[in-house]
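Re: [help] complex structure
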Amino acid sequence: MDNEVADLLQRFVAGDQAAFAELVKRYRRKLYQVAYQIVRNHLDADEVVQETFVRLYRKQKELTDVKTVTSFLIRIASNYAIDLLRRRRHHRQLDPDPGTGSSPAQLQSTKGVRTPGDDYHDKEITREVTAALSTLPPRQRLTILLHDVEGYTKAEVAAIMECPEATVRSNLHIARAKVKKLLLRRFR
Amino acid sequence: MTGVTMTCGQVQALLDDYDDDTLNEQERSAIQAHTASCQSCGKLLADARRFRTVLSNQAATVPDPGEPYFEQMTRLVLAKTSDRPTLNWISPIAGKSVAHRQQQWRRLGMAMATCAASVLLFAASVWLGLSYQQTRLEVIRSTPAENDIRPSFSFLLNNESEPSYVSRHETAMLGQGLVMMGAPGVLQRAEALPFLHAGR
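Output below.
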């Protein structure tokens, strides 16, 4: 664990409000990123992030056992986001243009030179991947998002999801196969 | 360590870990050697990498809500977790999420704008009514008494001992004004004001 974060956590557990504020500042963007990937809209992502920090605060006295704050926070956020999705009981409409306002996709063109056509194609693929991911069951979706999108290792994902690494591998394998199948069906 | 060879099945089972860079040097070398010589395993590795690149692009689909949002959200979290009493009883939107608060403030702004527009419209109606009565008074003053043909409505309202008279032209104007402004109550009250008939 990062020494600075460990120090912040220690001060927070001791009742230092400034340390809690610093933890919020440090993790707010990361949590928003994960929350948005799951719920796919700003309002819910905002609710998830706030609720996560409030829950962290309420667990102040129980935090002595937390080995990595990152895993702990992402676990709270992702569980809350999945609960939120289930409570909604319907799939929200996906962003009409997920690529808008974001950095362009970094796919490699076969010719090595990017054209406007390539960018359009990349956005189309990204949109279809978003749609395909939204069809996955919550746990599989979370696994593929954390590992393949956010770049966490399998061990980290297992720690976040509180499950064996073998389950992460299995979820990942199934989720990727489903997404590939949907994409092949769409682009064939 | 060279010389270790793997079958296609062994390589394919480890491709994901190879891509994660979690294998030891020996396994990594064996896979590199195998994928360089085996076309189908090489293609599998290339496909897997391309697919992961496509998936990793999902991170770019998350919009950046901006630093002001994160600052506001942080203040709200700190307010929720502080020991001070919340202001929920004062403001029904205190303690809600930032986005929810922004939505509520927008609605409140719209409602206030509508109220302000209504007040302005009412004030304009009153002003027009009074202006009209002022014009009417001038017409009455400038009209010879012999042209007056009917008593004013104010005579009936105020129980004046002597009726004041209005001309046909002025009665027609009054009728048009009532229809156009749609504020007959305002006009009647204005008409009943005694100063309008002062000087007759």
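Confidence is low (pLDDT under 50) at residues 93-112 of chain A.
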